[in-house]
Structures are given as C-alpha cells and as structure tokens.
Amino acid sequence: xxxxxxxxxxxxxxxxxxxxxxxxxxxxxxxxxxxxxxxxxxxxxxxxxxxxxxxxxxxxxxxxxxxxxxxxxxxxxxxxxxxxxxxxxxxxxxxxxxxxxxxxxxxxxxxxxxxxxxxxxxxxxxxxxxxxxxxxxxxxxxxxxxxxxxxxxxxxxxxxxxxxxxxxxxxxxxxxxxxxxxxxxxxxxxxxxxxxxxxxxxxxxxxxxxxxxxxxxxxxxxxxxxxxxxxxxxxxxxxxxxxxxxxxxxxxxxxxxxxxxxxxxxxxxxxxxxxxxxxxxxxxxxxxxxx
Length: 291
Prior knowledge:
Number of domains: 1
Radius of gyration: 17 Å
CATH class: Alpha Beta
C-alpha cells in the first residue's frame, strides 16, 4: 500500500512524529538539517525513538534545506548531499507500515515585491529540494512551518510538478483580534481554500504561537473551507525564555490531552512540533489507542 492509499483508507487518526531540532539540542548539537551529514548517528537515533513511539509517518531532517536558505544562512552543506542523506536516514529507520515524508519549509526570504526573492527563484529552490527528496525515496512531502501563503503555494506546486506523491501542507499561526493568522496575515480559511485548489492532500497548522487547545480551535476554520484531511502539529505549549534558553513546559500527558482535543475537533493527522519528544508522541499514541 502506498502512502496515498494509506492516507485515504485509514479511518483512525494518523500519527506523525515530533520535534527533531529540540531533540538534537538535548543531545548537545546545533539544531538543523546539516546534522544529517555531520552527525547522522544522532539523527538516526531520534528517528528510531519516534519509530518506537508508534508513529505512522516519519519526517526527514531536511527542514529549510533548500538552496536559498542554505546559501543565505551560510549553513555550509551541499544541497544534494544533505537532502539525500536526510531521506536515507529516515528511510532506514521506518518499519513495515510506516511511511517517510520529505520535510520542506521556508526559504527565510520574503517574496517580491515585499522582499527580493522572486517567485521563480523560490519555485526553483523548492523544485530542486523536492526532486532530491523524491530521489532519496520519500513516500510523500510535508511543507510545514510556513508563514506566507504565496511562498507555500510555490513549494506545493514544485512538489506536485516533481512527483506524483501526496503533499501535506502546514502553516504557522498566531492569535489576533481577527482570529488565527500567519505572520503575513493569511487566515486558515484562505490557506485551506487556496491550497486545496492547488492540489494539497492535507492542510493544517504547526508550530507558531498557538498551544494545542488553541490549535484545536483552528480546525473548524480549515474544515469549513475545504474537504481535505486536517493536519495539526502543536508545540509542547508556548515557549518560555528561561536563563537564555527557550523552554517548553507541557508534559507528555498534558500534550496528549491537547492533541486529543484536536482530534475531537476533526483533525485526522496529528503530531508534534517544537519541544515535543518521543515521550510526548508515545503519550498521544497511547491516548488515541484508548479512545
């Protein structure tokens, strides 16, 4: 069964993994996709912990590993090498019945006319990364932690042009007086409608400034705008700056209860973002099994 069939036929909630970056930080490493090349054993160890936690979908350690982000931030890795390495590590970690999503995120630059990155150059960067992840054997793509709908659409169209694989799309939201909005002012309804029309397989929210219970409140907004499955990946609560370090205080049991609320609201795919660990994801898996 391929990923599209699995996503379409599975009636229970589908579980994604949790944070990679904060888990690498716990191991004393700098966060980032470059670790797939510089510290592959550490990345593989995190992948395997999530695999053991009962996940269905494992995400590659390739967030922001597109050419624009790598070159503008002087990451110091080769685009081809880091994406193939990320796909290979995730592929080697999964077991029968688990699938790999190639992780894609923002370039870190604003699209013209607000910034100096053209839509054509953004598309080219995403097309290159998606091609490499597909070559590495991913089962589908996840475009996540996006703040600009137009850049997100560039990434989605590039993924769909590269391979006939499902593309899950997730944006980061904050709370405003008008409800949830991305940093660029996009609403869940506007995002859902545009992404559905562009061929996304699932849409939703991750990261951002919303805790799991606030994430649950965005689900009806997505559902009213499209018929696609809804994906929700909250942080382990809201970040706090303590002693110069960003800390997420939500315990695995508290996080699981919040994610369960997202499922009750209608989310079909759930996982974790910043601050979550294999323990958080296992707590979600255990709670979903018992519901």
